[in-house]
UniProtKB/TrEMBL annotation:
<dbReference type="Pfam" id="PF01261">
    <property type="entry name" value="AP_endonuc_2"/>
</dbReference>
<feature type="domain" description="Xylose isomerase-like TIM barrel">
    <location>
        <begin position="8"/>
        <end position="193"/>
    </location>
</feature>
<dbReference type="InterPro" id="IPR013022">
    <property type="entry name" value="Xyl_isomerase-like_TIM-brl"/>
</dbReference>
<protein>
    <submittedName>
        <fullName>TIM barrel protein</fullName>
    </submittedName>
</protein>
<dbReference type="InterPro" id="IPR036237">
    <property type="entry name" value="Xyl_isomerase-like_sf"/>
</dbReference>
Length: 207
């Protein structure tokens, strides 16, 4: 990585962690793993570290759902007090989120320039009935980063987007004056050719 001149980002720990938990031990483990991820990001010279939103759409009781969101806001605010002197941006990524509103609530109430949104296109397609346009307009200025992959809206297959799908996403971003960093989250045989194809579609974004 020392010879790599491009932008570096890191996906942080995710599985079995919950920054909105009501269990102090779960919070302790989550905090430990998140700080561990951040330390690795610092050593790699990364500018971004991505964490899942950990929002559970199956929670339908409003009081409990709100409590977990508020717990998560406190978690991040407390953690940020330890990170104020590092050049690193935290990105919260939608995973199983069925809409953008809870993620927006988190971002707005954490209220830090150090915490932004990583919009995962494939997750939005697979786990939400909202259109990509609704997601992008809803989160708009908070979107700094995009994980790009596609699917048939049935499962998270991490499939290659077609030219038409790239054009659709590009048009929405341009219409809303959003120029995020874009990471490709799918496998290809010729990465240079694929980057050039995507770069052509997103000529006003950073890839």
């Amino acid at each position: 990585m020392k010879k790599y001149k491009g932008l570096v980002s890191l996906h942080g720990s995710a599985f079995d962690l919950n920054p909105g938990s009501t269990d102090k031990k779960v919070i302790e483990v989550t905090r430990y793993r998140y700080l561990q991820s951040i330390e690795i990001a610092k050593k790699l010279g990364a500018l971004y570290v991505v964490f899942h939103s950990q929002i559970n759409p199956l929670l339908k009781v409003p009081r409990i759902r709100q409590m977990k969101l508020n717990n998560q806001i406190k978690f991040w605010q407390d953690l940020l007090e330890e990170l104020h002197d590092i050049n690193l941006t935290i990105l919260l990524e939608n995973e199983y989120d069925d809409n953008y509103k809870d993620l927006l609530y988190l971002i707005e109430n954490i209220d830090s320039e150090q915490v932004r949104v990583c919009l995962d296109i494939g997750h939005a397609l697979a786990y939400s009935k909202l259109t990509l346009k609704e997601w992008i307009i809803g989160l708009k200025s908070h979107i700094e980063y995009i994980h790009l992959h596609w699917n048939n809206r049935q499962n998270d297959s991490h499939s290659i987007p077609s030219d038409e799908e790239l054009d659709l996403l590009s048009e929405i971003l341009i219409e809303n004056d959003i120029t995020p960093i874009i990471t490709l989250e799918y496998r290809v045989d010729d990465i240079v050719k694929e980057v050039n194809r995507v770069r052509k579609a997103f000529d006003k974004t950073i890839i």
